[in-house]
Amino acid sequence: MAQAHPVLLVLLLFLSSTAISSSKRIQPKFSAIFYFGDSVLDTGNNNHLPTVAVANHVPYGRDFPGKKPTGRFSNGRLIPDLLNEKLQLKEFSPPFLDTRLSSNDMVTGVNFASAGSGLDDQTSQLSNTLPMSKQVDLFKDYLLRLRNIVGDKEASRIIASSLIFISSGTNDFSHYYRSSKKRKMDIGDYQDIVLWMVQVYVKELYDLGGRQFCLAGLPPFGCAPIQITLSRDPDRACVDEQNWDAQVYNSKLQKLLTTLQGSLHGSRIVYLDAYRALMEILENPAKYGFTETTRGCCGTGLREVALFCNALTPICKNVSSYVFYDAVHPTERVYMLVNDYIVKYVIPQF
């Protein structure tokens, strides 16, 4: 039998090793990603609910592929879309309530987030949206459907090797400041109630098979144009009290997540510092090419959001220079920067 030429052997070994390394590289880090939370993550679930908290009309979606409104509260894509694409799962993050979901969509993760919702059920009652409790119930419905598609064993594997991404709480606190709760309950006590709910839902998702969790802290929501408008500050500075409260809540959340990870065997729970990621942009706008940080691109930019940001509302000329698209929600360019932050600092922790 003729021996293979040594150069040929080396070449074959090299080719097989590069094939292995490239197949490893192509393998996504997570089998699927599931999103729970509010309008920062909602890719269209609210389109299927009888609520006014919708963005399925122009000028939302004007920079989305196909230039059409989809229910996303921005001019383009949101973190779930960008992160799914970056982690090589798929191009977008499909809303679970969409009746046209394919089996492939089901297997690689879906989105349960609902704009206007919170961890506190009462927050969602005001806007008739899906509170966290209902989103977790929908996840149970999803599990039944997934098991029908791939079988029990594979379904359990998918959930255990998936990422569960949660960003909720902003609506709970923005409602707190404007409700009778503020007179009855100290902010610290309300934070503890919301944190107790975080614990309940993470444990429930863990019991359903989830093992890898990313939980976002509160953003500096005192810098949202609508919060500045409501504060009536002529200088349009961020509302310090709200930002301070957000930071206090975030430090409590970080402590809770460390404790939770210790008590939930085999879990990995990573904190996303959304406050820092957004504050970096708001404090250094020129570094990132932004010129407008206190007004949205839609209308006057002071209070237009949801149905008040519509086809009759004038739109800013250069959206890429705006941090906010409406009076509450960031532009796609901000989400891209935050997504880069997540991929650089959060994902390597898994």
Task: Report the oligomer.
Answer: single chain
Mean pLDDT: 94
Strands, total number: 6
Q: β content, as a range?
A: 5-15%
Between the first and last Cα atoms, what is the distance in angstroms?
A: 50 Å
Q: What ranges have pLDDT less than 50 throughout 5 or more consecutive residues?
A: 16-24
Which structural category do the helix and sheet elements fall into?
alpha/beta
Shape: globular
Strand order of the largest sheet: 1-2-3-4
The share of residues in helices is 40-55%
Structure write-up:
This protein has 350 residues and is α/β, with parallel strands linked by helices. It is 45% helix and 8% strand. It has helices at residues 6-26, 79-86, 103-107, 121-127, 132-150, 152-160, 170-177, 181-184, 187-207, 225-231, 240-263, 274-283, 332-346, and strands spanning 33-37, 163-167, 212-216, 268-272, 292-296, 322-324. A 4-stranded parallel sheet has the order 1-2-3-4, with helices on both faces. It has a two-stranded parallel sheet with strand order 5-6. The termini are far apart.
